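Anyone up for a design puzzle?
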């Protein structure tokens, strides 16, 4: 239960949040045409006659888009409707050539489901379930550009007709943090399933944010909808600003108007775009050019069988089977790219080394990538190279200190660790004769400290270990060094 409250002049207020996430479906073609969907193409270079609404053009549903929506619904444990229908939503806007959008109002392809979120990755007791109301498929509109000409607006129809899933949550969230956790988890699931790349900065995932406030336990208040927010940070900021604005309005004796608002990321505030009455005059009716969508049992079975292991199941397996801590398991499964990298590493190294591999990945590699400003996807070290490095430590070829030196060289050069060890003579030595010789030299150079140690100053043992390792340039096997020092010092 969230304890997030806004402290107003008249007491505490609770925030009620629902999100409508628009996720671009992963498909090489649009929802009703064969036009390409690649990001970043020249304006109006990916527009078919169907997308441009030329007379006589008929839409043909893209089965892959329907398949991806069904697989997403299954991943959210949602009800899949074997019969659904496309409707026309009529409104005029310059980037919508048809004068209507094809959507699914009355009979969506996916019904109710749910997502479990963790508010604290280190605490499984912080879990909360957020309900999904529905998922429907619809066309995206084009894009108007107002900064290309002093007196004209230009239109780019590349996105016109691109397939979207609109994933509508129930109003179950009660804080900006819960909303942020929900969007991150939803994006993670979509990426695991492969139904959306989740790249919010490219516009392939964005959210309409519904916010209202009420006194704790009171009925829901009037909500506003902030359109097209395109980052988790901005979603959280929009909620915080809008909730505080509504409290200020209500406490000063005003009323909240149901309206559509925009979020300004530069000023970190929302502003009114247009009023939104309860009744919409979109004149929805079944699209006469499209038959209802009927899903066969075989199609549904194929969709279910194609699903990968999802983040929650993977997290539980990492804890129960691999022995990882809840925090490490949560971090390593949060993004599909991280989980794949880790599993590639284990495939080379063996699952019995999972705990050591996880610790190395999360401390050494993540730390280095953060320092370099790179991600795991473009890491200069491959899972195969990482496995080789960890194996060299496990078999005694490298000490912990030497492995860090080799790792730094790997980051700079991209070389394999074995080649670096051979080339630069960085092997750890367990040669007792060589180590005993260095120990004798260290003791001769520090006769006073030897006497102190033998006189009962046990803490000096660490000094002798350090001096010996330093003299051997970190190449002495620490276990052998410790054993031989204990003998030599008596």
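Challenge accepted. My sequence:
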């Amino acid at each position: 239960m969230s304890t997030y409250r806004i402290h107003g002049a008249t007491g505490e207020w609770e925030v009620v949040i629902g999100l409508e996430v628009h996720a671009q479906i992963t498909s090489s073609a649009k929802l009703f045409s064969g036009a390409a969907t690649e990001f970043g193409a020249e304006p109006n270079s990916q527009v078919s006659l169907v997308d441009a609404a030329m007379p006589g053009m008929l839409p043909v549903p893209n089965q892959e888009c329907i398949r991806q929506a069904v697989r997403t619904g299954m991943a959210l444990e949602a009800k899949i409707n074997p019969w659904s229908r496309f409707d026309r939503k009529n409104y005029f806007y310059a980037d919508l050539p048809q004068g209507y959008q094809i959507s699914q109002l009355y009979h969506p392809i996916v019904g109710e489901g749910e997502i479990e979120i963790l508010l604290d990755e280190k605490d499984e007791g912080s879990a909360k379930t957020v309900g999904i109301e529905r998922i429907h498929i619809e066309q995206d509109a084009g894009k108007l550009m107002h900064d290309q000409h002093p007196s004209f607006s230009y239109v780019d129809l590349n996105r016109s007709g691109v397939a979207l899933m609109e994933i509508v949550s129930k109003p179950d969230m009660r804080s900006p943090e819960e909303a942020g956790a929900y969007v991150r988890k939803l994006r993670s699931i979509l990426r695991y399933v492969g139904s959306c790349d989740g790249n919010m900065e490219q516009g392939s995932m964005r959210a309409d944010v519904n916010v209202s406030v009420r006194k704790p336990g009171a009925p829901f208040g009037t909500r506003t909808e902030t359109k097209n927010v395109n980052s988790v940070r901005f979603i959280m900021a929009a909620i915080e600003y809008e909730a505080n604005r509504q409290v200020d309005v209500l406490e000063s004796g005003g009323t909240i108007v149901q309206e559509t608002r925009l979020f300004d990321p530069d000023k970190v505030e929302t502003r009114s775009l247009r009023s939104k009455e309860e009744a919409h005059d979109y004149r929805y009716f079944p699209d006469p050019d499209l038959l209802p969508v009927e899903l066969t049992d075989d199609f549904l079975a194929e969709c279910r069988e194609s699903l990968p292991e999802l983040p929650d199941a993977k997290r539980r397996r990492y804890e129960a089977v691999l022995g990882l801590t809840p925090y490490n398991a949560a971090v390593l499964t949060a993004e599909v790219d991280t989980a794949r990298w880790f599993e590639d590493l284990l495939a080379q190294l063996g699952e019995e080394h999972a705990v050591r591999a996880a610790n190395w990945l999360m401390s050494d590699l993540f730390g280095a990538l953060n320092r370099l400003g790179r991600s795991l996807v473009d890491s200069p070290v491959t899972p195969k190279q990482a496995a080789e490095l960890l194996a060299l430590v496990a078999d005694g070829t490298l000490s912990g200190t030497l492995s860090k030196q080799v790792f730094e060289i790997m980051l700079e050069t991209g070389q394999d660790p074995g080649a670096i060890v051979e080339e630069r003579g960085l092997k750890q030595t367990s040669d007792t004769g060589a180590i005993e010789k260095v120990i004798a030299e260290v003791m001769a150079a520090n006769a006073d400290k030897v006497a102190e140690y033998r006189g009962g100053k046990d803490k000096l043992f660490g000094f002798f270990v350090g001096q010996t390792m330093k003299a051997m340039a970190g190449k002495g096997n620490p276990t052998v060094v410790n054993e031989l020092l204990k003998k030599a010092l008596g």
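A detail worth pointing out: The chain has a mean pLDDT of 93.
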